[in-house]
Design goal:
Helix content: under 10%
CATH architecture of one domain: Sandwich
Radius of gyration: 71 Å
Number of helices: 0
Largest sheet: 6 strands, antiparallel
Structural class: mainly beta
Oligomer: single chain
Number of strands: 13
Shape: flat
Order of helices and strands: EEEEEEEEEEEEE
Strand order of the largest sheet: 4-3-13-12-9-10
CATH class of one domain: Mainly Beta
Strand content: 5-15%
């Protein structure tokens, strides 16, 4: 068996060209005549160049090396048309009565069909039309005589009711004489009444505006007492000026003053006052909230320190804070009381406060 030097394929015996790549085989002898390589029956591919039969699926002819065309699929046979069903032969006419619905024979006189149950009652035939010439004229109904209205009877006169007797006149009550007006006591003669400078209306003493025209009235000038005449040889004493009285300052209780801004935080009247940062998530709301004064950036803990009041003395206690608590630059040990004096400097983290008792 010859081997293709181009692709290494082993074609069948007697092949001149490779059936895979179409190269000519060197060991092949003379080409086989097309008549000797007649196609065999059974669906082989016929070469268009030499007419030799090849195995289906090969790309080149084994005898001449010509490319083989792809087999053309056979056309599908047309589907047979459906044969129409034969129409049923009409049933022979029954000798007796039949059901109008299904055509089954029924017994005369039955009301319903024994096969389908349809009613066997026949509808009455419509009346035959009568020709117009033979149709008898329908007499028009005579109008019933309208009875004449009887003469209206004159109404009998109705006796008028007797007039009701007039009520007796009620005597009007005699007028009650009014009591004589009480005599007002004689008042002493009033002093001269002031009058309006615009309309002349009388005014009450002390009125600044007229009640009739609204004009502003001149205020009465108070009569200054006559100054005593100085005695000869004595100098008048100088008038003493009244010194202004300063308004009392409001009393201010214990408080903390933020050194950076000067904001004052009054201390509530409690025995224990918590200093720290507000945290709604954990439910911590200290009495002295340093969050608005830079407590978050200044390293203030949520529970930083507390002030304890006992016997009027204020003590500062560190609550084991992260950035410590200082009094006058001295660090406090956790949970240790440090008494506070007026003007002490407190530092919570990096926030500096001044403790003031009052004034």
């Amino acid at each position: 068996m010859a081997t293709c030097p181009n692709c290494g394929n082993k074609p069948g015996e007697g092949a001149i060209f490779c059936d895979r790549c179409g190269a000519r085989l060197p060991q092949a002898e003379a080409a086989v005549a097309p008549a000797a390589a007649a196609p065999s029956a059974g669906g082989s591919v016929i070469c268009a160049a030499c007419g030799a039969g090849n195995v289906p699926g090969e790309a080149f002819c084994e005898f001449c090396g010509a490319p083989l065309a792809a087999p053309v699929p056979e056309a599908a046979a047309p589907a047979p048309e459906p044969t129409p069903a034969p129409e049923p032969a009409p049933a022979p006419a029954a000798l007796g009565p039949v059901c109008p619905a299904c055509g089954a024979a029924v017994v005369a006189g039955e009301a319903f069909c024994a096969d389908c149950g349809a009613s066997l009652a026949q509808a009455p035939l419509p009346p035959e039309p009568v020709p117009e010439a033979e149709a008898a004229p329908v007499p028009e109904p005579e109008a019933a005589p309208v009875p004449e209205p009887e003469a209206a009877l004159a109404p009998e006169p109705v006796a008028e009711p007797a007039p009701a007797p007039e009520p007796a006149p009620v005597p009007s009550p005699e007028p009650v004489p009014e009591p004589p007006p009480a005599l007002e006591p004689a008042l002493p003669a009033a002093p001269e009444t002031p009058a309006c400078i615009m309309c002349g209306a009388e005014l009450e003493p002390g009125d600044k505006y007229c009640s009739d025209c609204g004009a502003l009235q001149p205020a009465a000038k108070p009569v200054a007492p006559a100054a005593p005449e100085p005695k000869p040889g004595l100098l008048p004493a100088p008038a003493l000026e009244a010194e202004p009285v300063a308004a009392p300052l409001p009393v201010r209780g214990p408080r903390l003053v933020v050194a950076a801004s000067g904001a004052e935080i009054p201390l509530p009247a409690k025995e224990e006052i918590l200093i720290g940062r507000e945290d709604p998530v954990s439910g911590i709301f200290p009495d002295v909230d340093l969050t608005p004064h830079g407590g978050d950036e200044g390293g203030v803990s949520r529970r930083h320190a507390r002030i304890v009041v006992e016997g009027g003395v204020y003590y500062l206690v560190d609550q084991n804070s992260t950035n410590f608590t200082y009094v006058n630059k001295q660090r406090l040990a956790p949970e240790t009381r440090q008494p506070l004096k007026d003007g002490d400097e407190i530092r919570c983290g990096r926030i500096t406060l001044l403790f003031l008792l009052g004034g």
